[in-house]
Amino acid sequence: xxxxxxxxxxxxxxxxxxxxxxxxxxxxxxxxxxxxxxxxxxxxxxxxxxxxxxxxxxxxxxxxxxxxxxxxxxxxxxxxxxxxxxxxxxxxxxxxxxxxxxxxxxxxxxxxxxxxxxxxxxxxxxxxxxxxxxxxxxxxxxxxxx
Length: 146
Known about the structure:
Helix content is 8%, strand content 41%. The chain is mainly β and 146 residues long.
């Protein structure tokens, strides 16, 4: 059974605005950072030659000086996003899926399951027309069931 919004509070820290983020049986997750791969990752069979590629943190840009928050103006391609919210699932299973507001324009991240929340970093696929994301935008929904 999916947990209610009230029950979800015990699994998530860093919620920005409860009234907006909580949905029926879910919590909308918000973008904290956008990263882009700058060098290749190297993988081998045994792991002794494994090497992680470099990631660059992209900085959001304000549209006008008086704006409180900036925008990531992303060209078509592949990015990595992190969330403001910290998720810790001690009992149960989590599901994170993209919101329709992300997919309606042709961009998405895959839906995935998690047993704990450490290191939740979805791969974001941006369509060839691009995608503009404002800081703290809601892009994904977390459901937890036990």
